[in-house]
Amino acid sequence: MRPKVFVSRIIPEAGLKLVREACDAEVWPDVMPPPYEVLTEKVKMVDGMLCTLNDRIDAALIEAAGSQFKIFSQMAVGYDNINAKAAHARGILIGNTPGVLTDATADIAFALLLAAARRIVEGMEYIREGKWRTWEPLALLGADLSGATLGIIGLGRIGEAVARRAKGFDMRIIAYSPSKKAEDVAKLGIELVSLDELLQQSDFVSIHVPLNDQTRGMINADALGKMKPTAILINTARGPIVDQEALIEAAKNGTIGGAALDVTTPEPLPSDHPLLYLPNVTVVPHIGSASQRTRDKMATMAAENLIAGVNGQPIPNQVKPS
Ligand code: DGY
Fold first, then answer.
1. Domain 4-100+293-310 carries which CATH code?
2. Is 125 a catalytic site residue?
3. Is the Cβ atom of 235 under 6 angstroms away from ligand 1?
4. 294 close to ligand 1 (CB < 6 Angstrom)
5. Catalytic annotation on 267?
6. Of 124, 182, 196, 248, which has the most beta carbons under 10 Å away?
């Protein structure tokens, strides 16, 4: 009998095709993610689930899973929506999609950095509002990248990919990444510093750590207060790493120069949220991995993890119990 699986969203055909060929698959048909109650019913019946970062997979949901249930295959590298400890305690596998979205996410971090530095969104607004009357020596002046210091919090795959891009722009690169060795990152032209040094010295601070108990609220009012009044904060990791209320205050009162965010709290951000109406803050709707090629690869990798998992085989990308 073919394994039964639930796919919690319509994902790119590259992955869906693999799942349909190998499994008896039910695909949630809506644009909006399935309600929690639906997920709870599905885990009682299926052998595995291909899920996304929208699905809350907490201890109660994991508890509800039947003994046949083998794997949550997440179509993302981040899996903070899954209670990994509870899943592993029940012997349920977790798959994720590292590597394939490194470049796309580094690209969006750099796109946000450039947009904020050179006031791209404000510039377009300026034209829309009919303010563009002449070439103005003093209008919309932004920040230079060359010679500026970029501080990278978290030198994993994505942090390193951001550093490679920054080198091409002649930036000085410093990083806070406790698990790295100074001699290893020196080869990449990166200097390791403490978090305080990074916050104090950087013209741009870019966050590339996963969300967990150590990183939640890491960039709070205290951390923002250590940044330069001209510095720009870029977050393409997870919204709750930044204390958003503190960020709004800091961007409003000039504690920092501004921010550019791909991730927020909550997601989606309501269209009347104050963060969207600050001239020095740019927000995009969690599109870091949203290129066709990257999403095809993520869907393929998530499908491969799912298929291996439901068949009792080693999965290509497993989140290991910590
Ligand atoms: C991830 O893979 O964690 C990304 O946030 C999805 O875009």
1. 3.40.50.720
2. no
3. no
4. no
5. yes
6. 248
Confidence category of residue 279, pLDDT binned at 50, 70, 90: very high
Ligand 1 closest atom vs CA 236? 5
| Comparison of pLDDT for 1 and 222, the residue scoring more | 222
For CA atoms 4, 5, 11, 14, the dihedral sign is negative
Best of 9, 51, 53, 294 to mutate for ligand 1, by most ligand atoms within 8 A of CB? 53
**CATH of the domain spanning 102-283:** 3.40.50.720
Reported as a pLDDT band with limits 50, 70 and 90, residue 201 is very high
Catalytic residue among 13, 41, 136, 267: 267
From the CB of 158, is ligand 1 less than 6 Å away?
no
| Percent with pLDDT over 90 in the chain | 99
**238 catalytic, yes or no?**
yes
> Is the pTM of the predicted complex or chain greater than 0.85?
yes
Other CB atoms within a 10 A radius of the CB of residue 120 amount to 17
Reduce the DSSP state of residue 296 to 3 states and report it. Answer: helix
Token pair belonging to 46 = 């299926």
Compute the Cα dihedral for 255, 258, 264, 268 and give only its sign. Answer: positive
The segment(s) of the chain belonging to CATH 3.40.50.720 are 4-100+293-310, 102-283
Q: Name 51's bridge partners.
A: 74
Q: Please check the confidence at residue 322 and state whether its pLDDT lies above 90.
A: no
